[in-house]
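User: Can you predict the 3D structure for this chain?
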Amino acid sequence: MSNPTQKKFVLIFICICLYSHIYSQQKSGIVYGTVKEKSSSKALVNVNVFISGTTLGTVTNNNGHFEIKGIPEGNYTIVASMIGYEHKIDKIEIENNKKYKIEFYLEEATYEIGTVEVSAAVPEEWKTNLSTFKKYFLGTTDYSNNCFIENEYNLDFIMDETGTLNVKCPVNLVITNKALGYKIECLLLLFTFAESNSSVKYVYHTKFSEMTTSDKSEKDEWENNRKMCYSRSLKRFLKFTVNNEFYNGGYLIGQSSSPFDLKLNVRSKKKSSDKLWIKEPRLISSLEILKYDDEYDQYVLSFNHYLYVGNSITGDYSWLYLPSGKSDLDRYGEPVNPMSIQAFGSFANNGTANLLPKDYDFE
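Assistant: Here is the predicted structure, written as structure tokens:
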């Protein structure tokens, strides 16, 4: 948890691909289609096709065909990825018991894949950049030290003229999260870190695989850690926001002139002896910061300055900021444009080490 009184802070642009809340495991759809090479229209074999942020995916057969079944209702990003080709994505909303056909045409990649050999000759600058990347990409929570990038030597670091660190990787990153029990394949699209204001921006697509163990205590630890990660997530807060259930979710909200400002106009369900809260907080509903747009079947989140979010369940506190003054949320509570929300405090500390599959929801 970050120190709310610290003057320095990390600004994270919430750029993880769109997550959807699953309302019913019985309602699901099917996505099928083919993947071909764009220049020749020949079928491509063994292309990874997956639903970003989930455990759902497959590879194309000898005819370039794929089929993914059992996709719960919601908005998704579907990714087709193969070494030597530029990835392609398609966005789709899955509705109950429907089939959706998608055709992907992949172009050959223009980059050359290279690696850095593991040796004592690895440049110190590269090691420093790697350390910076891991700090902000994996996060700074209790689980970060148990999250490992298996192929980190494929990373390429470029410092531009403004002093911003840009990170690229020609292959999918392979991440093992021993704290949550997941193996993650990560297609990194963007990562930048500006040291001048400690701001971080990243965008990626992920595919999860469950790790296996015969140790019951380890399984229990994974599940307990997953529950805690979910309880601390921005995803959970936005879900309770669109459902107008702030207080059922244990949230205390208020407005602040700046992040880490503790002189808040806090709105909570009841008084608290904690010095963080004012003496007579006022109850509000999410309708004060959220409006429904019937034309687009989505919600508009809007507030002035910074929105303080206190989590009475975990003891965390965070701040949200909307660069454009608003953020459109789909009916599942997910940002239509993830970069429309900036997070500070505890939400900002949650990197890949705290990432859960989109269909995870124990409540």
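DSSP finds four helices and 22 strands in the chain. The longest strand covers residues 182-194.
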